[in-house]
Specification:
The chain is mostly helical. The chain has 7 helices and no strands. The N and C termini lie far apart (68 Å).
Length: 226
């Protein structure tokens, strides 16, 4: 400022740390326990074990028991989207659908392999049932909504004020990947699912599920709990 220099800046992305709501989480977890995990077939387990072994994970197959409920509180990371920002403006929770093979590295080709399989469909149906049941209970029990807002106002935001890092003059940077998208989007069109011709995407690809066979057990690897 002392040199009369001028500068400009542009925020390309920002994400607040996540803090989710105890009341809504506990309500949702009750329905997770009621709905339970999908009924996995031997084909599902065989596919999962083969994919797990392909990336060096223990071939344990699909999960057979529910994980514990998460503990409400701030998370240092913001996630891959703006869910943290949303969580600081209203009571919010997230839920993980059992739609993928566990034990795989995130943002990796192996994590995309289950998306066209019955595993993904079963997990999405189970997750949708939980979401619908949770929403219905919140509609029917307004006292739960009041309790959720009480946690939000009296605990989560008691000593923290949310201010977005992204201002009204910070447009989304959709130009960053324009060249890549212009190059590859036309090449991907041949792989779009045509529901008018095929019952499943695997049928369109000509793949018999599961193509991968059950792997040989690794030394000292625990057996699948089933």
């Amino acid at each position: 400022m002392m040199t009369d220099a001028e500068m400009s800046y542009r925020v390309r992305g920002a994400a607040w740390p996540r803090h989710f709501n105890r009341t809504v989480a506990e309500t949702m977890y009750e329905h997770i326990e009621e709905v339970g995990l999908p009924e996995w077939t031997e084909d599902d387990h065989a596919f999962a074990e083969a994919v797990q072994q392909s990336v060096g994970s223990i071939p344990s197959g699909m999960p057979m028991s529910l994980g514990p409920i998460g503990v409400p509180g701030p998370r240092r990371s913001g996630g891959s989207d703006d869910i943290g920002d949303i969580a600081w403006t209203m009571p919010t929770v997230t839920m993980r659908f059992p739609s993928n093979v566990p034990g795989l590295p995130g943002h990796h080709w192996s994590s995309a392999m289950a998306m066209a399989t019955p595993i993904a469909h079963k997990g999405a149906v189970a997750g949708a049932r939980v979401m619908a049941r949770t929403a219905l209970q919140l509609f029917m029990m307004p006292e739960l909504v009041d309790e959720a807002w009480a946690y939000f106002n009296d605990v989560q935001t008691a000593d923290m004020e949310y201010v977005s890092f992204i201002g009204p003059n910070d447009p989304p940077p959709i130009d960053l990947n324009k060249e890549i998208m212009d190059t590859y989007r036309p090449l991907l069109e041949q792989y779009y699912y045509d529901e008018t011709r095929f019952d499943t995407y695997l049928e369109q690809l000509g793949i018999t599920y599961p193509t991968l066979t059950r792997p040989i057990s690794l030394p000292d690897a625990p057996e699948s709990p089933r």
